[in-house]
Design brief:
The chain contains 16 helices and 20 strands. The chain is an alpha/beta fold and 537 residues long. The chain has two domains: 273 residues, 4-Layer Sandwich (Purple Acid Phosphatase, chain A, domain 2); 211 residues, Alpha-Beta Complex (5'-nucleotidase,  domain 2). Bound molecules: the ligand Nc1ccn([C@@H]2O[C@H](COP(=O)(O)O)[C@@H](O)[C@H]2O)c(=O)n1. Ligand L45E5XJ5 binds next to loops. GO terms for molecular function: hydrolase activity.
Length: 537
């Protein structure tokens, strides 16, 4: 693409907006995590790169970001509002440069670029995420937006396209620079989205899990050598399905001409890494598709129904608690992908359940109180004030991210519209039949999707599900309340609402020490879904 575009006298920039870690065997399967992924990433030519929230959940992840990824992309990695305790000096320092200025190779466009993370509060305490609204008051930012020689402000970030954070940055820049175009690139909400702030400022978000290559073209920027005398640039956006068919089409090539030597080498590196990590190793065969949101909950084909009725009930048990009844509470956001019929591999494990959360419990909780807590977690919208330290206090954050966004859009101050989400990697059909996939409507209309798809049903799921683990069928008076550690701060607050005075952080104890939900899922599949010859795909 770069070659093609440059031959036309234009520039191509590649922007990466974070969440490169967690949710894929290439990252999660190695020890230490990310070993193979960093090597692959190193070969990419990325012009502006930012951190997502996933890079900051754990100390080792952010430290590796600091020592490896920032190091590898030091001219292009931007961290406008993230500091880290340097693992070598123990000093609090910016994770990367706050901003950069550069001039594009072909057209000489002078760009001032920033890299932001949304107002995230769930990071481990070796990093500090400064609120965007505070960051833009800082002297360095105020100076940067007053930079004289600028044709375009480029704000990349792991920040939703429609968000108070981006709105604040837009207002801050516009108040000083009424005429300079601003291109935002966003993320985090797992949706394709495009926001039009004014005639010269737009924002593009490219969906989730690298299913989408968001493509933005800006035509007619006024530059030093080609001033456009006040005319507005033309912004166009396209959501490209991430597959070879799309790449052949947009590079005007085919299977024989598309591949470059570098591309072939990186593909080989990926294949070798997958082999070393045994990502195709088959642990079992899944008899039917299990969906996150394509079927209602509860449902025979819901991954959550399977989790609560089979995996948790069959396997969650701590030796020291013997036969005492337990209620397990797990957030639905802990599951990251559908489980497809067919081979269940080492890669599948990490794709559906990448988190390393362990289980904890509080003993002898009245069963009625557990139900009240579930009501609070699933029916309230917020259990805490924004300044309380529970990931912003929004219980919706316990659900899959795309669903969180669904509600925000409806409440949003900036006007957004709805979209139906694809859970499948979209493919073009050889027979010309329309394949289910993304059908996006955004601020610019419904013509953004590069491939036309039929829509996919979307059902809301609760924020948390529960499973009663008991030797007999009857409802117990009291039970161990077992939960995955990610939801601990939310539980403490929900318990207050439910009239239960328990500080889960202080009173919670380890349950099945060292075991994660990922381990349980894998064990359950191995024990219950062995492959027979007819089931391999
Ligand atoms: N240890 C964790 C971390 C995250 N989650 C869930 O993921 C959501 C955030 O995902 P994004 O891709 O939007 O950043 C979070 O709100 C949780 O639902 C988790 O379960 N455990």
């Amino acid at each position: 693409m770069r070659e093609k575009v440059e031959a036309q006298g234009r520039d191509l920039l590649v922007i990466e907006t974070g969440d490169r870690v967690e949710g894929n065997g290439l990252y999660d399967s190695s020890d230490p995590k990310g070993l193979y992924l960093s090597e692959i990433l190193r070969h990419q030519s990325i012009d502006v790169m930012t951190s997502g929230n996933h890079e900051l959940y754990k100390q080792n992840t952010s430290e590796s970001e600091c020592l490896v990824t920032v190091h590898d992309f030091k001219d292009n990695y931007l961290a406008s509002n993230i500091d880290i305790i340097d693992p070598e000096t123990q000093e609090l320092v910016p994770l990367a440069e706050r901003y950069k200025t550069f001039t594009t190779k072909i057209q000489g466009i002078r760009i001032v670029a920033f890299g932001f993370l949304f107002d995230f509060t769930g990071n481990y305490n070796n990093t500090v995420v400064q609120r965007v609204e505070d960051t833009i008051q800082e002297e360095w930012f105020q100076n940067a937006i007053r930079e004289k020689e600028v044709d375009l402000f480029l704000v990349a970030g792991h920040v939703p396209a429609h968000s108070p954070e981006y709105k604040a940055i837009f207002k801050a820049i516009r108040s000083i620079r009424p005429d300079i175009p601003i291109q935002f690139f966003g993320g985090h909400e797992h949706i394709r989205d495009y926001a039009i702030y004014d005639e010269k400022a737009v924002s593009l978000a490219s969906g989730r899990f690298m299913e989408t290559i968001g493509f933005m073209s800006i035509d007619g920027l006024s530059t030093k050598n080609r001033p456009t005398a006040g005319r507005n640039p033309v912004f166009k956006r396209r959501y490209i399905d991430n597959n070879l068919h799309s790449f052949y089409h947009h590079t005007s090539s085919d299977k024989d001409t598309f591949h470059t030597e570098k591309g072939i080498n990186v593909s080989r590196l990926i294949a070798e890494s997958r082999t070393t990590l045994e990502l195709d190793k088959i642990y079992g065969c899944v008899p039917r598709d299990l969906w996150m949101s394509r079927r209602p909950y509860p449902h025979d084909a819901s991954v959550y129904t399977w989790l609560e009725q089979d995996v948790l009930v069959d396997l969650l048990s701590d030796e020291s608690r013997m036969d005492r009844p337990a209620v397990a509470v797990v957030n639905t956001g802990a599951i990251r992908f559908d489980v497809f019929k067919g081979s269940f591999t080492q890669d599948t494990v990490w794709t559906i359940s990448p988190f390393t959360n362990q289980f904890r419990f509080v003993k002898d909780v009245p069963y009625g109180k557990v139900q009240l807590i579930m009501d609070v977690l699933n029916k309230q919208t917020k259990v805490v004030r924004r300044d309380d330290d529970a990931h912003g206090g929004d219980v919706d954050a316990l659900a899959p991210p795309a669903q969180v966004n669904h509600r925000r859009w409806l409440d949003s101050e900036m006007d957004g519209t709805q979209q139906i989400l694809s859970e499948a990697l979209a493919e073009q059909s050889d027979s010309g039949e329309v394949i289910p996939g993304y059908t996006t409507t955004d601020d610019a209309g419904d013509d953004g999707d590069d491939t036309i798809h039929s829509s996919i049903p979307y059902y809301r799921v609760p924020n948390c599900i529960q499973a009663l683990i008991s030797a007999n069928e009857s409802i117990p008076e009291t039970a161990d309340l077992v939960y995955n550690e990610f939801i601990e701060p939310y539980l403490t607050l929900a318990a207050k609402f439910a009239g239960l005075d328990v500080d889960f952080g202080k009173e919670g104890e380890s349950y099945m020490a060292g075991v994660t939900m990922t381990d349980l899922i894998l064990r359950w599949v191995k024990e219950n879904w062995p492959c027979d010859d007819s089931m391999h795909i």
